[in-house]
Amino acid sequence: MLLKVENLDVYYGAIHALKGISLEVEEGEIVSLIGANGAGKSTTLNTICGLLRPRNGSITYQGRDLKGLPAPAIVQLGISQVPEGRRIFPNLTVQENLELGAYLRRDREGISKSMAEVFQRFPRLQERRKQMAGTLSGGEQQMLAISRALMSRPRLMLLDEPSMGLAPLLVQEIFNIIREINRQGTTILLVEQNANMALSVAHRGYVLETGRITLQGKAQELTTNEAVRRAYLGG
């Protein structure tokens, strides 16, 4: 098991945001976490990557307990996050943003190789490598955010709302990229409000409602589940 979350309780002050959630991610999978706005999806990712501290429960990655580890140490272990809203550095160039993604690495040759791979996958970023990241389109900024996370050579990538604010054609392109990254060996835990797209690329999924996991199963099973269809798939 690559990632195991057990009985996780997370609070924002007096607000009980995550209520005993448990989930698993196997090596090589895409696992989708779907749910309405405010269900606790981003809170789950932020807790896994060390930005929030759980009150109860455990998070183990490759059998190692992550509880109490600072976020940089978690990145170093092989987990990177593409945050909601992209969070690129607008006043730095595309290339500088990518270099920051590799800030914990010391293998200069390997970093150059990773940069070349990013530019091969995203020719548009190569064309704009000297451009300020804040001047990129929304789709290009999402590609940059994903590429920045890839620069740390993650084994597990946490993707938070990658389709947010993008035109339908770009959404399709981003999800094709997600599939390709997974095919090339990166395991993905995907948080996404666009449940149709999320389940179309996932192997398995979890449904999160007000801080609790209410359903889980193979993506295909969730797609045909009547309650899921009514609540999230518009059918």
Describe what this molecule looks like in 3D:
The chain is α/β, with parallel strands linked by helices. Helices cover 39% and strands 26% of the residues. It has helices at residues 41-48, 71-77, 94-101, 108-121, 123-127, 138-150, 168-183, 195-201, 219-224, 226-232; strands spanning 3-12, 15-25, 30-34, 56-61, 64-65, 79-82, 156-160, 187-191, 204-209, 212-218. The protein has a 6-stranded mixed β-sheet, with helices on both faces. Strands 2-1-4-5 form a 4-stranded antiparallel β-sheet, covered by helices on one side. The longest helix has 16 residues, at 168-183. The model has no long low-confidence stretch (mean pLDDT 92).
Give the structure's gist in a few sentences.
The protein is 39% helix and 26% strand. It is α/β, with parallel strands linked by helices and 235 residues long.
Radius of gyration: 17 Å
Helical proportion, percent range: 25-40%
The unreliable regions are: none
CATH architecture: 3-Layer(aba) Sandwich
Number of helical segments with 4 or more residues: 10
Please write the string of helix (H) and strand (E) elements.
Answer: EEEHEEHEHHHHEHEHEEHH
The name CATH uses for the topology is Rossmann fold
Give the N-terminus to C-terminus distance in angstroms.
34 Å
Strand content: 25-35%
Class derived from helix and strand content = alpha/beta
Could you name the CATH homologous superfamily? P-loop containing nucleotide triphosphate hydrolases
Q: What's the overall geometry?
A: globular
Mean pLDDT: 92
Task: Please summarize the sheet with the most strands.
Answer: 6 strands, mixed
Number of strands: 10
State the strand order across the main sheet: 6-7-8-3-9-10
